[in-house]
Amino acid sequence: MKILKNIFKNSRSNEDGIFFGEIQNIIGFKPSSIQYYQKAFTHRSTNKMDFKGNPMNYERLEFLGDAMLSAVIAAYLYNQVPTGDEGYLTKMRSKIVSREHLNELGRDLNLIRFVESKVPTQHFGENIHGNIFEALIGAIFLDKGYDYCQKFIHKCVIIPYVDIAKLEGKVISYKSLLIEWCQKEKKSFNYDVFDDNGIDGQKYFGVKLSIDNKVISKARATSKKKAEEKASQRAYFVFQEMIDHKQ
Amino acid sequence: MKILKNIFKNSRSNEDGIFFGEIQNIIGFKPSSIQYYQKAFTHRSTNKMDFKGNPMNYERLEFLGDAMLSAVIAAYLYNQVPTGDEGYLTKMRSKIVSREHLNELGRDLNLIRFVESKVPTQHFGENIHGNIFEALIGAIFLDKGYDYCQKFIHKCVIIPYVDIAKLEGKVISYKSLLIEWCQKEKKSFNYDVFDDNGIDGQKYFGVKLSIDNKVISKARATSKKKAEEKASQRAYFVFQEMIDHKQ
Q: Where, by residue number, is the active site (chains A, B) (predicted)?
C-alpha cells in the first residue's frame, strides 16, 4: 500500500512539474506558487473546495483578472495615446478587452488543454477561452503582483494584438494595404502557407511572405487568415521603416 | 524687470511648496513629480496645453484613476471575502466605487480647494468631487506606481469607508444598533457634538460618545450624522471585542 501511495505521489509530482513548465513557458517567468494557476484552470463542475470549505474554481480569479487587465490596458493607452481624450480611451479599451478578443487570446494560447472539469471541455461555449485567460491574469496578480501582471499582458496581449491604427479603424487589413502597395510599386508578392503544428496538438499555420521573390516576413497563427495578416503587418512595418530612413 | 520676475518666481515656488505639502498630507507620502498632481486639479476651462499641444487637464487622469481604483478594490474584496462569488464581488465593488460614494470621498478630503479653473467652482455639479478624487489616484499611479496607489486607496477609501457588513445591508446604521444595545443593557448614552473646524476652512463636526458617563469613542466628519455614525461604529467594535474576549 505504501509503495502504491508513493508511486501515486510521484506521478502527481511529475504531472505538477509538467504543468509548472508549461505555465512558465506561457507567462514568461517562473511561478512562485503553482496553486494559484491550478485554481485558474479548475472548473466549478469539479466541486472542489479549499480546506476552509470555500469553492475552489476559476470564477473569482476571473473577476480579479478582468480588473487587472482593465487597469493595465488603461495605463498602456494613457501613455501610448497622449492625444486621446477620456471617451477615446474608454472606447479603445473596450475594443481590446471585448469578450470576442479575450476568447481569441485564450484560444490562441490553447489554455483549454489545462482545464480540469467533470464536463467534457467540448461542451463549454466559446467564452471559456476568455474566462480562463482572465483567471490566469488573476493568478499572476496573486502570485507575483501588479508588475508581473503588466509584463504578461504586454507580452501576450499588447505586443501581439494591440495595434492602435487598426483599432481606430484607420487600417482595416494589412494584407489589402500591402497588396495595394505592391501593385502600385509594380512588385510581385507571394504568401506561402504551410502547416506548422506545435507539440501541444493545437493546429497552427505558418506563412512566409515574399516580395519580388525575397522572403520579407514570417508569421504563425491559428488560422491561415490570421497568419497572413500577421505576416503582412510585419512586412508593412519593415517597409515603413525603410521609407522613414530614406526620408 | 529682472527683480519683478524673481519675485514672481519666488511667489510661485512658495505656492508650489504649499501645494506639495498639502498633497503630501493627503496622500500620506512624498510626491516625486508634483506635475502629475497639478494636472489632477486642472479643469478643462483653463484651456492649458502641454509643450506638445495636448490638453492639460484632469479628464484623462480620471480615466486612469477609475481603472486603478477598480483594480485595487477588486483585489481587496477578493482577499477579504473568500466566500463571495463573482456576482457578489462585482456588486460589492460597484457599491464602493459608486458615483455618490466617490463624490463623498472627494468632498470629505475637500479636494475642490485645489482646483484651478476659469469657471467658479461653485458652478460645478456634485460630480466634480468624485472626478478629481479619481484623477488624484491616476496621478499617484503615474508618479509612484501601483503599490502606492493601493496604499492611498487603503488609507483614504478602505479603512475609513469600507465596511463589508454595512455594504451587505446587514447593518443599516451603527447608531441605531448601539442605541438598541444600550436600551437592552439598561445603559445611558450621550452624543456630545461640537464644531471642530480644520485649518483648511472646511466645516467639520466632532462627536464624543459616552456610555454610562464614560467617553467610549470619538469621531470627526463633515456632517453631524456622519460623525455620530462613525463614533457609534467605533464604540460597537470596542464592545464587540470586549464580548469576544469574555467568551
A: 66, 134
B174-246: CATH topology is: Double Stranded RNA Binding Domain (3.30.160)
Q: Please give the mean pLDDT across all residues of chain A.
A: 87
Q: What are phi and psi of B5, to 5 degrees?
A: -60, -45
The nearest CA of chain B is from the CA of A136 a distance in Å of 14
Vertex B175: Cα angle to B173 and B179 (nearest 5): 125
The answer to whether A51 contacts chain B (CB < 8 Å) is no
| Residue A183 DSSP SS3 | helix
Return the DSSP state at A85.
-
Domains B8-167 and B174-246 alike in fold:
no
Inter-chain residue contact B59 with A85, CB threshold 8 Å: yes
A59-102 residue pLDDT tens = 999 999 999 999 999 999 999 999 999 999 999 999 999 998 89
Q: Return left, alpha or beta for B205; rule: phi > 0 is left, psi -120 to 50 is alpha, else beta.
A: beta
Closest residue on chain A to B71 (Cα): A67
Closest CA to B235 of B196, B180, B195: B180
pLDDT digits (tens, 9 = 90+) for B151-162: 999 999 998 888
Q: What is the CATH number of domain B8-167?
A: 1.10.1520.10
Give the CATH superfamily of A18-167: Ribonuclease III domain (1.10.1520.10)
Burial A220-245 (b: 16+ CB within 10 A, else e): ebbeeebbbbbbbbbbbeebeeeeee
Name chain A contacts of B74, Cβ cutoff 8 Å.
63-64, 66-68
**The C-alpha cell that represents B111 in the structure block:** 479636494
The interface predicted TM-score (ipTM) is 0.75
Going from N- to C-terminal start, the domains of chain A cover 18-167, 174-246
Per-residue model confidence as pLDDT tens digits over B53-79: 888 999 999 999 999 999 999 999 999
